[in-house]
């Protein structure tokens, strides 16, 4: 019985230590400012996204879980009917974000719940840039995926 009690205490001490370490790391991270000038932001092709769509991750990891970042659509970009596994929150910065044919200009907020089928895109006359946040990894599920040619 004494041995069992010792192991329980040892496990609890280990859990407390891990919790303190994680809390300490979070406090340290929250105390450091993150400052990126626009010219220092490195845009990359959106992994798993349509060709021409660029992205920059500001926090998190959009290939693994929750994240926040910015996306850029080239002028004239249109995405076919699709949905996302996780809800999408968008704030338009430049150009416009179109959702099911309606344009939302700079400063607009767009929320698309998980699983809602929609068409999206930018505008014809300029690139569109918007902040995007999701509670899980990014995906785009086409409603009518193109069939493979044999």
What is the radius of gyration? Answer: 21 Å
The CATH architecture category of the largest domain equals Sandwich
Give the class-level CATH name of the largest domain. Mainly Beta
How many domains? The number is 2
Cα separation of the termini: 68 Å
> What quaternary form is this?
single chain
Shape estimate? globular
Proportion of residues in β-strands: 25-35%
Keywords:
150 residues; alpha+beta; 2 domains; 6-stranded antiparallel sheet
Question: Would you mind describing this structure in some detail?
Answer:
By secondary structure, this protein is of the alpha+beta class. It contains one helix and eleven strands, in the order H-E-E-E-E-E-E-E-E-E-E-E. Helices cover 20% and strands 35% of the residues. The strands form two sheets. It has a six-stranded antiparallel beta sheet with strand order 1-2-3-10-5-8, with no helix packed on it. Mean pLDDT is 84; it is low at 9-26.
Write the layout of secondary structure elements.
Blueprint lengths: L1 H30 L12 E2 L8 E7 L6 E7 L4 E6 L4 E7 L2 E3 L2 E3 L4 E4 L5 E4 L6 E7 L6 E2 L8
Antiparallel strand pairs: 1-2, 2-3, 3-10, 4-9, 4-11, 5-8, 5-10, 6-7, 6-9
